[in-house]
């Protein structure tokens, strides 16, 4: 999954920002077509400390409100749950992203330092 907002940041800057309160958030949304409903999540957004998520949350909530409620029975149920999640700040996935990032960094370091590697 793509992470938006970290394009010009080094790993050290990301770690420092997370230590200072930045977080990684995704926003669920629901789309329905006739009787089929689909609950999906946005890309992950990097949210610096103190920055509002209102605009991003509103966009995904609006999509759910316009296109999600059509499918019975899951459309209305998922629409309400996605709008609620978005209104409460989205789904914070900071710990998962940082754990995966640290694990991949450790694996890369181990590969570079493996015997027979220069």
The N- and C-terminal alpha carbons lie at a distance of: 32 Å
* Structural domain count: 1
Oligomeric assembly: single chain
Computed Rg: 18 Å
Low-pLDDT regions:
none
What's the pLDDT, averaged over the residues? 90
Which percent range fits the helix content?
40-55%
- Strands, total number: 6
Shape: elongated
Helical/strand content category: alpha+beta
Strands of the largest sheet, in order across it?
Answer: 1-5-2-6
Counting DSSP H or I runs of 4 or more residues, the number of helices is: 4
Query: Largest sheet, described in full?
Result: 4 strands, mixed
Percentage of residues in DSSP E strands: 15-25%
The helix-strand sequence is: EHEEEEHHEH
Structure notes:
The structure is a single chain. This protein is α+β, with helices and mostly antiparallel strands. The protein has one domain (3-108). Helix content is 47%, strand content 20%. The chain has helices spanning 11-19, 54-67, 74-87, 94-112, and strands spanning 3-4, 23-26, 28-33, 36-41, 44-47, 91-92. The protein has a four-stranded mixed β-sheet, covered by helices on one side. Strands 3-4 form a two-stranded antiparallel sheet. The chain starts with a strand and ends in a 6-residue tail after the last helix.
What does the secondary structure layout of this molecule look like, with pairings?
Layout: E1 3-4, H1 11-19, E2 23-26, E3 28-33, E4 36-41, E5 44-47, H2 54-67, H3 74-87, E6 91-92, H4 94-112
Parallel strand pairs: 1-5
Antiparallel strand pairs: 2-5, 2-6, 3-4
Helix pairs in contact: 2-3
Notable traits:
118 residues; alpha+beta; four-stranded mixed beta sheet; 4 helices; 20% strand
